[in-house]
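Section 5: illustrative case.
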């Protein structure tokens, strides 16, 4: 698979089979992803690759919290600005309409939307997951470095025939994840990433992108 194919075939898959992801594949992907760029080569990512019983335990504990109606953990970072301005507000709204529309869920059906969102904490059935942390003392440039690293991981997963879904949703249950993984206190959970083989029976529509002239300005010499 060439780079263009990896980029254009990558999407957030929210339905996986139970086919296991070999640990040697994860090791190969994460070894290569270590070459992702970072300012002054800080390499600010701290990644936990989780499968088998540890992942099952995280899912179990998260599911128990959902069933009990426990509130989300105190947020450790702001996922979106409280007043999201245009055009970002409209793009987010369009994503929600497409995501839940594909599931046959109306905007007014809050309960059904909550049930669909709950699949996040089962990793959409994926048998493997990453939990990506960053040191609390690092700043915005290092957060952008982590984003480049995660994108590199996702493209390498495509080269292995795998799909993924990054999930800031796991930051809402960061205490539950920490109960199993025991990360050092100085680390903050940025996101999880579900990894596996796509379940083609599940609808996974690809979200569209803005026209190029909305996001790119060309200056020609």
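Designed sequence:
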């Amino acid at each position: 698979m060439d780079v263009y194919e990896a980029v254009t075939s990558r999407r957030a898959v929210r339905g996986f089979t139970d086919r296991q992801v070999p640990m040697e594949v994860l090791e190969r992907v994460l070894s290569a992803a270590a070459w992702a760029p970072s300012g002054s080569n800080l390499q600010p990512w701290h990644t936990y690759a989780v499968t088998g019983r540890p992942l099952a335990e995280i899912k179990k504990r998260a599911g128990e919290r959902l069933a009990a109606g426990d509130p989300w953990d105190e947020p450790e970072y702001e996922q979106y600005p409280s007043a999201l301005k245009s055009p970002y507000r409209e793009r987010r709204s369009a994503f929600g309409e497409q995501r839940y529309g594909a599931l046959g869920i109306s905007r007014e059906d809050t309960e059904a939307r909550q049930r669909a969102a709950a699949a996040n904490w089962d990793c959409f059935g994926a048998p493997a997951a990453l939990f990506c942390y960053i040191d609390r003392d690092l700043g915005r440039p290092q957060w952008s470095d982590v984003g480049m690293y995660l994108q590199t991981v996702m493209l390498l997963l495509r080269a292995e025939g795998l799909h993924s879904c990054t999930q800031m949703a796991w930051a809402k249950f960061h205490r539950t994840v920490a109960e199993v993984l025991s990360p050092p206190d100085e680390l903050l959970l940025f996101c999880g990433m579900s990894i596996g083989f796509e379940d083609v029976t599940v609808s996974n529509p690809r979200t569209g992108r803005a026209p190029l002239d909305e996001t790119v300005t060309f200056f020609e010499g």
